[in-house]
């Protein structure tokens, strides 16, 4: 049984590292897109301010969704770390009820986490396509 627990822990760590790396990559890409948009606008002032602002909005929204994911994961782990003291001082029946509520809440948070990640990836992809369209139109 200990081997399964160690293996699950190892895969869980790998999953978290992969998720954090992916989110970091998307945040960096969105930051680069914001910089590229600024450079594009400074080179060619004919580009409509609406295009620039809409691209900024897409990138910033994507970054906000990813930072939100970080905060949710951090909150979950913070709660886990502080749970030990709580378990010592709480009756078993109350713990079982709260444990079931926590599992439902965590599963719901996980669904939202995945949804935010997908929306962020979509917004980032849309931003990249949008920049290419701006380059084609205004070059």
Task: Kindly list the characteristics that best describe this protein.
139 residues, mainly alpha
**Series of H and E elements:** HHH
Q: What helical percentage do the residues reach?
A: over 70%
Biggest sheet architecture: none
The pLDDT mean sits at 82
Q: How many individual domains?
A: 1
- Report the uncertain regions: none
Principal-axis shape equals: elongated
Secondary structure category:
mainly alpha
SS field, number of helical segments: 3
The value of Rg in angstroms is 21 Å
How many strand segments? Answer: 0
Which percent range describes the beta-strand content? under 5%
Distance between the termini: 63 Å
In short:
The protein contains 3 helices and no strands. With 139 residues, it is an all-alpha fold.
Q: How are the SSEs placed, and which strands pair?
A:
Blueprint: H1 2-43, H2 49-88, H3 92-138
Helix pairs in contact: 1-2, 1-3, 2-3
Explain what this protein looks like in three dimensions.
- The protein is mainly α and 139 residues long.
- It has one domain (2-138).
- Helices cover 93% and strands 0% of the residues.
- The protein has three helices and no strands.
- The protein has helices spanning 2-43, 49-88, 92-138.
- Helix 2 packs antiparallel against helix 3 (92-138).
